[in-house]
Every structure is written in structure tokens, then in C-alpha cells.
Automatic annotation (TrEMBL):
Protein name, UniProt field: Uncharacterized protein
Recorded superkingdom: Bacteria
Length: 66
């Protein structure tokens, strides 16, 4: 996954109604968005949509050891 460029983020921000975002905040938004991209990449994509967390969570796998 390639990181979002400043120009791509400006376009996304404009579509979200943040076109008038002050320049001082644009770098901050880019940094936050890149952290978001890392978190999104960690989400498993190999499950069907019907596998909601409540249906696949197994509490026994989190039992205390020792």
C-alpha cells in the first residue's frame, strides 16, 4: 500500500468539505491520515461480510494462562 500524497489528501479533504482547511492543519491531517491507513491495513480482509465480530469472537481464546 502506498502512502497518500499531500495532493491526494487535499482532494479528499475538499470532497469532505474541508477545502478551506488552513495550511497549518494540512500537515497534521496528513500525518493523522497516514496513521489511519496503517490501522486500516491491519484489518483482516479475508472474512465474508456475514462474519460480524459478535459471531466470530471466541472468549476462550483470551483465557488467562497460568
Amino acid at each position: 500500500m502506498t502512502a497518500t500524497t499531500e495532493e491526494e489528501l487535499r482532494l479528499l479533504a475538499a470532497k469532505a468539505g474541508l477545502g478551506a482547511l488552513p495550511a497549518a492543519y494540512q500537515g497534521e491531517l496528513l500525518s493523522a491520515y497516514r496513521h489511519l491507513e496503517v490501522m486500516l491495513a491491519r484489518i483482516a480482509q479475508d472474512r465474508p461480510h456475514g462474519d460480524e465480530p459478535a459471531h466470530v469472537f471466541n472468549a476462550a481464546t483470551f483465557a488467562r494462562q497460568g
